[in-house]
Here is the input.
Amino acid sequence: MTDEFDVVVLGTGAAGLTAAVTAARNGARVGLFEKAPEVGGTTAWSGGHVWIPCNPHQAAIGVSDSPEEAVTYIMSLSRGLLEEKLVRAYVAAGPEMVEFLDREAGTEFYAVPDFPDYHPEHPGGKPGGGRTIECPLFPFTELGEWQDRVTHTPYYSTEHLTMSETSLGAAVPVVPSEEEMARRALRDERGRGQALVGRLLKALLEAGVQPQTRHRARELVVEDGRVVGVRFDTPEGSRRVRAGRGVVLATGGFEWNEEYKRAFLRGPLTHPVSVPTNTGDGLYMAMKAGAMLGNMREAWWIPAADLPEGINPMNRAMITADRTRPRSIMVNRRGRRFTNEAANYNAFGGAFHVEDVTAFDYANLPSWLIFDQGHLRADGTIGPHPAGEAPPAWLKGHPTLEALAEDIGLPAEELVATVRRWNNHVANGVDPDFGRGQSAHDRWWGDPAYKGDVRGTLGPIDDPPYYAIKVVSGGLGTKGGPRTDEHARVLDLDGRPIEGLYAAGNVMASPFGMTYGGAGGTLGPAMVFGYLAGRHLTGGR
Ligand SMILES: Cc1cc2nc3c(=O)[nH]c(=O)nc-3n(C[C@H](O)[C@H](O)[C@H](O)COP(=O)(O)OP(=O)(O)OC[C@H]3O[C@@H](n4cnc5c(N)ncnc54)[C@H](O)[C@@H]3O)c2cc1C
Here is the structure.
């Protein structure tokens, strides 16, 4: 086993795989190392949507875009936290990255129609979508012995669908026939994040790069101020490798590190939904190497809920489409609504971190998703619970709102009044309290039967039994870490590049600040900065 490489990449999520494939296709000898026994990281668990403004596939679905529109849109969400230089680098390199991977790595990206940006009414936003791309199904039988070495997602009941075929990725989901699903199973054709990881992995294997798993990077080897290698913990003991040109940190965020979360985050992130190996190792190594940190308070926030054991291996679920659909609201412990339930999941983090200064507590944590039988019947609810089926045994129905309130410890009078007020708003077709349904975003995520209409998200709660699920603050990953320049080079405390050190993905100070631009908003920058790192390390395209 060689211990000498040009480029050493740490982590096998989208950021690491993209950096590795870019460097390898540009002729570098690449060493790719992964802490877990399986490759793919959270990326393999994901929907596989990638947000790339001005991507070369937009024209095929009739969308026009321009770098100025994209920069205007992203900067409109800045709140003083974004560096325009990095935003411009991202917007400029995104389409190049897509072309490069389509050509060199067989990604076969296509644009997803209709999926609105997450703040589409901001200047430069796209209410009609077009900035989100994804890969088609990928036959895992093409990976040989690696077919069974990609981490499986705990969240989706089948891997044989693309995101755009599901209710999370399409206004009107496609339901493939049983024969079609059987055909997909035969070649183990997987969609979403699996398809993205599978395609990048295949390209790497073809370029002669075999990921080395169970390698936990612990320490950067620094000589004369330059990063020249890495020391790993492996089951066989400590191992050192050299990196002639440089090292790319792509080790994900620190959402599974309690100490770092306490030290840095702006508020609770009790329920990460990423791979548990993301414990901030890259942040530790970067800090030790003298990196300047940025965006440390932020995460890709998402509402989440505990599930009873046995439903999925994480015993938790993301609460996404469920809270956007009719016949549901969210309330706090006072039994009151507190935000637009259909807002994008990342923005929701802000609602969870609001302080009740009198009680000296978080005003909206925990909160409850309240819904009725009609919601369950039409839309299904959290986890792998198909629409139209009887509720799962763990979900307790109540004949009245008063009984529900008593069961979950909320003031009954308040809950009843809140639901009455909500039902009035629904009857009037407008939510004057929180503007739910105003944005194209809300109307898209709602009930597919009412695509683009407020009825897709506004619906009365009046069809007993009534149900509640406790909702807490989760995260897809953190987004603070070492700051980089527009080539993904890590900067030191004086703003100068640390020679030989690069970062991409959730390990780095996100160029997006608090923002989540649109569907694929985390994989987009992860892949673009991985590409920029791989390109700069090889002086290539
Ligand atoms: C269900 C779900 C759906 C999602 N859908 C989308 C979507 O459609 N679009 C989108 O943009 N985002 C989505 N996300 C978020 C997205 O998956 C992550 O933000 C993204 O995968 C992060 O990529 P990454 O490469 O930075 O990290 P990861 O993919 O998490 O990879 C980091 C890797 O580094 C490894 N590692 C950690 N420490 C070390 C070490 N010391 N040495 C070596 N290796 C190490 C980890 O084991 C891991 O494999 C979703 C997330 C979930 C959970």
Q: What stands out?
A: The radius of gyration is 23 Å. The mean pLDDT is 95.
